[in-house]
């Protein structure tokens, strides 16, 4: 009985204590001292956010966007499961959910804006310029695939952001890149110690920013031919050597490996070489054939063979060991592309002599990039007119292997002339992700989305 009474008294005392606490402080749970959790970060540093941005965007550029456009451009062949469907243009609106989310969250626009805010508040000009470049890269390249996107209201108080017109986004990206170049030119302040691309080199970032400006001008050249002159002016300040190529960064540590390697390790049967690409390289006796691919298996052992659109040819040539290396640093923009942009723009502005010279400069850049023998890609001579521009765009198609910019080139120029899967048409834009559409009623349903983006009005090249 004694023990029972002690326990009863203890319960009563505890109850009274809690009762008194809540009577004397009715807003106890909202007390700032209680809500201040020292183990929960309320603000993340620019450096941590910047690491997240780079990793997320490296994987976006090497991942499903690269595979999708590579299959549609017939550089690759989808031969199994989901990838076979992509080669037959069969997909739903959830196909690129993760890729569309990657425009905004988890190492994307929201994080970039926070980096910019800290850099601007602390006067870190170089850091601010780099962050502005990344915003222009992420948003502009995404607009090249989806067209209209939430942008001006995407970060802030608007719970249902509007879709900005594709043209308005590109105009904003050009302004942003100009600001980035100005910041990088001025320099100064703290630099990101974890800059995985250029290690904080202002000069290299300025070259990349100018090359991105040239890309974006070209994206609209089908609508306005005056953009060729603008792109020409920008590219002359673009990437100036292979040493300055804009590349992803990976190591041989499994958790830091390339997205191409990771996909093929898990789903090796899904994708093989594209027939068009294999046949083109073989017809040119191009030494990049075994840089990109290995020979086939089974009945195709010892042969370089590609799969046609929608053909489930799993014995076809797979990617080479070099392309499937854990630590492959994938070229996003490079010196080869710079020369070929210069070549195309020179041709379109009436300077075929420079166009031919830059075509040959691009081939020399490719030989250096892949460690090929001097002049093994040939020296173009005597090309004029259609033959010259065809050679320029063919060289770019090959050099931009698995690079989504090859898709943008094709939409603008209709080169290469690709035969689509039987009864189908190569898609000219991506569907919005249904994850975004279900939370934002401004995103139209698939049936109401356009077949083409505004910068791809028709076949006028």
Give an overview in words.
With 461 residues, the protein is mainly α. Helix content is 51%, strand content 2%. Helix 11 runs antiparallel to helix 15 (335-348), helix 15 packs antiparallel against helix 16 (352-370) and helix 16 (352-370) packs parallel to helix 17 (385-399). It is globular. It starts with a helix and ends in a 22-residue tail after the last helix.
Task: Name a few traits of the molecule.
mainly alpha, 51% helix, 2% strand
Task: Lay out the secondary structure.
Blueprint: H1 2-24, H2 32-35, H3 46-62, H4 64-72, E1 76-78, H5 81-87, H6 97-101, H7 109-122, H8 125-146, H9 166-186, H10 202-219, H11 227-235, E2 246-247, H12 259-266, E3 271-273, H13 275-283, H14 289-292, E4 331-333, H15 335-348, H16 352-370, H17 385-399, H18 405-413, H19 434-439
Antiparallel strand pairs: 1-3, 2-4
Helix pairs in contact: 3-7, 7-8, 8-9, 8-10, 9-10, 10-11, 11-15, 15-16, 15-17, 16-17
Instruction: Count every helix, treating DSSP H or I runs of 4 or more residues as helices.
Output: 19
Helix content: 40-55%
Task: Tell me about the largest β-sheet.
Answer: 2 strands, antiparallel
Give me the oligomer status: single chain
Distance between the termini: 98 Å
The helix-and-strand class reads mainly alpha
Radius of gyration from CA coordinates: 26 Å
How do the strands of the widest beta sheet line up side by side?
1-3
Strand content: under 5%
Q: What is the N-to-C order of secondary-structure elements (H for helix, E for strand)?
A: HHHHEHHHHHHHEHEHHEHHHHH
Kindly state the number of beta strands.
4
